[in-house]
Design goal:
The protein starts with a helix and ends with a helix. It has 5 helices and no strands. It is elongated, with a radius of gyration of 17 Å. The longest helix has 35 residues. With 140 residues, it is mainly α.
Amino acid sequence: MLWVKAFHILFVTSWFAGLFYLPRILVNLAMESHVTTTERLLLMARKLYRFMTILAVLALVLGLCLWLGYGIGKGPGNGWLHAKLAFVILLIGYHHACGSLLKKFEKGMNKRSHVWFRWFNEVPVILLLVILILVVVKPF
């Protein structure tokens, strides 16, 4: 079980690294007007999104193994896990939103400012904070 947990943490951490960096690329895309630079940023964003999707799938599969296979979070007094899963669903939605925004940039249809993307970039920080507190403190 400890190997599964270690790799789950590794893939979650790596996924979050992508979730922190991709919106930053979107900030730069929203500010950029030079075609060559835009194409380079789009290429970086596409590759990062593909890679972080693989990391997300691995993190989710290993998390499900811990929950369903090893029973972590089962039984009374484990409401923290249900709350964590709700925030993980929000995180998956955020990941999907990053992909949708990237597609808009690829089609040249972005209507949002770099300031909006700067605020959007803060969402995974809040989600990480809440998830981390739920997992470590287990408040309920």
